[in-house]
Design a protein that fits this description.
There is one protein chain. The protein is α+β, with helices and mostly antiparallel strands. About 35% of the residues lie in helices and about 20% in strands. It contains 12 helices and 13 strands. The strands form 3 sheets. The protein has a 9-stranded mixed β-sheet, with helices on both faces. A two-stranded antiparallel ribbon has the order 2-3. A hairpin with a 3-residue loop joins strand 12 and strand 13. Helix 5 crosses helix 6 and helix 9 runs parallel beside helix 10. Bound molecules: coenzyme A.
Length: about 375
């Protein structure tokens, strides 16, 4: 059996940014418009008026301060409240492929590798722009990579599940070098008119290059162990799918976008993740004192603080459990990879860390790495 190592990561960050204050101004203008349009029903008590959102609530409840998006104008237009991403011609690169390629090229360049060296591309994300051909195959072609490609979706855990898939193929010898790419255009599955969740998501793409580890000389992270788990739950759900869309397209259906019971997710996912990480560490012979860093899924600061404390058995020191959600918001599967990409180069040979994602499914994936 071969060994695998992460040799490069890349992050595509959109140029447009929306602060909480900008978001709240747009939401409140939308709520005022809606309340005016429905004033009679509200006065008659047959409809509830929409309350205003607040930046203070957003920061206190989530830790999010801003988010990057592909299209700011459409989202902040109170009469629209949805990104404007016009359909592209079949001959042109799709949105996911375009941002995925950008992230992949950064990962390749960090590792000093060419796309032709890659023989597996996995596009792992929460939503796919189309059913087929696979976005992964489009990315493979745009990059000029060899081998084969496919798409996979495990919602917020797509990146870690993709890494386990690639690592297993490298270990078995079926591929030598794999790119796991996570283009997450979360702005297009978020209901920006829903006060309970309108602040949650942002857009980004990440890429992780994983190679067979045979005497790698450049800095890298050996993949010591990976572990994935799932447990069915309806508490994070999106019913948009090919069976429903054509029939129901005239209906304004809330369940065709991201939905969650945030409080339940909070309560149920924390013990699931804490136990998953503890079991994975025990099975690998890694103790809390062995871990220099945790790169956690980026959904909620309080959740991460709780998990960090549970895993390490103490409050993490500054920098031990870096968050990026204050800048990027929740970027679904890409969050833990952004944290890893931006906060790992300072580790020394032999230092160990753990990447962990969790989300819809429920799903949880962890990857234990060691700086080589
Ligand atoms: N502005 C102001 N107030 C708001 C608001 C907003 N945008 N949204 C909700 N509120 C109010 C609610 O009306 C409620 O008021 P009430 O107590 O008077 O009824 C109060 O704030 C608390 O709402 P709640 O929805 O219970 O907030 P919360 O503290 O649970 O925080 C989340 C919401 C979503 C940030 C939090 O539940 C969470 O992060 N959950 C886990 C999410 C997660 O990991 N999901 C995975 C997705 S991939």
């Amino acid at each position: 059996m071969y060994h695998a190592a992460i040799t490069g990561t890349g992050v595509f960050t959109p140029s447009a940014v929306i602060s909480n204050d900008e978001l709240v101004v747009a939401f409140n203008a939308y709520a005022d418009l809606w309340n005016a349009e429905n004033a009679q029903h509200i006065a008659a008590g047959t409809m509830a008026a929409k309350d205003h959102s607040s930046s203070d609530f957003i920061v206190a409840a989530s830790g999010i301060e801003q988010r990057y998006v592909l299209d700011k104008e459409g989202i902040l237009d109170p009469a629209r409240m949805f990104p404007s991403l016009p359909a592209r011609a079949d001959e042109d690169p799709g949105y996911m492929a375009e941002i995925g390629v950008d992230a992949a090229q950064k990962a390749l360049s960090q590792a000093g590798r060419k796309a032709a060296d890659v023989d597996l591309v996995i596009c792992a994300a929460s939503n796919m722009e189309r059913a087929y051909p696979a976005i992964g195959v489009e990315i493979q072609q745009l990059l000029g990579a060899g081998g084969f490609a496919f798409d996979m979706n495990v919602a917020c855990s797509s990146a870690t599940f993709g890494i386990q898939t690639a690592v297993d193929m490298i270990r078995a010898g079926s591929v030598r070098s794999a790119l796991v790419i996570n283009p997450e255009i979360c702005s297009a599955h978020l209901e920006w008119r829903d006060r309970d969740c309108h602040f949650i998501f942002g857009d980004v793409a990440t890429a992780t290059l994983i190679e067979r580890d045979d005497a790698l000389d450049a800095p890298h992270f050996k993949v010591l162990s990976t572990r994935c788990a799932t447990q069915f739950s309806n508490n994070i759900r999106n019913n948009n799918g090919y069976l429903r869309r054509t029939h129901d397209q005239m209906e304004d259906r809330r369940d065709m976008q991201f939905m969650q019971n945030g409080r339940k997710v909070f309560k149920e996912v924390l013990p699931l993740v804490s136990k998953h990480i503890a079991d994975h560490m025990a099975a690998t012979g890694i103790s809390a004192t062995d871990l220099r860093r945790l790169w956690l899924h980026q959904a909620n600061k309080t959740m991460n603080d709780y998990i960090g404390k549970k895993v390490l058995g103490r409050t993490p020191e500054a920098g031990e459990q870096p968050n990026i959600l204050q800048d990027y918001a929740n970027t679904s599967s890409a969050g833990s990879i952004i944290a890893f990409s931006q906060h790992s180069s300072d580790l020394s040979a032999g230092d160990k860390g753990l990447i962990c994602s969790f989300g819809a499914g429920y799903s949880v994936g962890s990857v234990i790495v060691e700086r080589g």
